[in-house]
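worker-3 :: picked Monovalent cation:proton antiporter-2 (CPA2) family protein
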Amino acid sequence: MAAASAPPLFTEAIIFLAATVVAVPLAKRLGIGSVVGYLIAGMAIGPFGFNAFGAAPMVLGVAELGVVLLLFVIGLELDGSRLWRMRRDILGLGTAQVLLTGAAIYALLRLMGKDLEPALVAGFGLALSSTAFALQILQERGQLSSAYGQRAFGVLLLQDIAIVPLLAMVAILAPSGAEGASQGALQEIGLTLGAVLGVVVAGRYLMTPLFLLLARSKAREVMLAAALLVALGSAGIMHAVGLSMALGAFLAGVLLAESSFRHTLEADIEPFRSLLMGLFFVAVGMSLDFTVLAVSWMQVAAGVIALMLVKGGLLWALARVSGSSNADALRIAVTLPQGGEFAFVLFTAAVSQGIFGASEASILTAVVIVSMLLTPVACAGLDYLGARLKARGVEAPFAETFEDAAPVVLVIGFGRFGMMVAQLLTSEGLEITAIDLRPERIAYARKLGYKVYYGDATRADVLMAAGAGKAALIALCVENDSVMDRAIHAIRDACPQARLFCRATSQTHALALTRLGVDFHIRETFESSIAFGRAALEALGIPDERINEIVEDVRRRDRERTELQLNEGEFAGTDRLHALTPRDEASKRDR
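worker-3 :: tokens ->
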């Protein structure tokens, strides 16, 4: 009996996983980052290596979904106000970088004797950096939210937008391309504006009610399906009108950044994003044609050196002129000097339009891929140089800064108890993030002006997405004891640095929290009961001094009883409940 054939892509998946499991840990061990590991794995298994995986363009088409999901997750972290604050970096620094880098490379190519049209397309195609590579490097280093990381992201966002006019330029530069170009351009602008408006309206008025409805169903897999639908659907709409898919996903993420579901969406999509991003880098490595490298290695080497020096130098200068410190300017320069994935799109369009031949496109593609390969190496080199200078007592001009470091509190559970805790913290101006699992409670809190997000505190990925990794204190204010117990274990595993304050629902629960070693706990009704009892004593005419004695004595006996219960069991120390508060001689005489 013949053996059944393997499912589609089964063998390819095993090869991909095996190559990455070997190459990525090795690259990280050498200090050059996981991106280089994925590239090496792709070069090894690709059509120009062992040819074990199939055609790179087919894989690259699927793997680009990783870039789409990456931009969606980035968008979730940027609300509209924050994006508006970045406008100078996007429109100013980003536009200047594309124009000046494109013009500089164009001038170099013209000096080398290239014709005007190929030089323009190659110059501006190489001016675009790799969104996937740069953002992966920034995320791995935890620098995406830093000052230089945000400026670098602004440049990348402008480059994603720039692909539209650059593709229009290719159509105009093509032989007989100008004929009817203006009419086509107007039609394309109209379609683009319509698509953007459609995504904005849907994001503003439809997405949050949809996720509220799905959250009430308590079906996590449906929430995940909806998250992928939103990210990929908005990407597909933008792609249909000629815009970048990644830009469409980013816009959807920004629109959901103000919603209550951003942290859960981010946690749900992260595994898919990571896997597809790895596949994307593998596919890029597979695309490197070693035949072209062997025949035209001098041209490729010269192109890589010129590209990284020109782009890196201009990035450093523009960042310095626009207000960055020397440290940030250097880091931007070594993060964005490579060519980008959109260059592949531009060069393919130029070949199809007859602007330059396939051999020239192959050389330019090799320049882009090799520059990608060298970017993590350049970043690691800058870090190594800084560490060596610091070891010799020289303060490196590109050392890390912690200007944005501030205590952050994560409040989990936003009922009446959690809301009062949040009010006290925000009254001091402290930054808090609050999560809850009840949609109706989230909606009510938002009506009161609080930003509360949907999230399950027992999931470590949700906790990290909500910022637990950088929280100075986590306040667990949930009512369910078993949920709190699981959340405590998740928090201790994921972010042991945070101080853990807990709400105890009963004396038994308080004992359990003590055994778990939380930093602080309090029974939810203890203080209110003390206040209630104090008011009752006042109403009965008991003097204030005597009331203070009683309150202090009750607190002392409660502490003693708790100690006895921890050592001897739940019913130990019951005599402490019924003792009379002693009177001193002075108070007896007064009475």
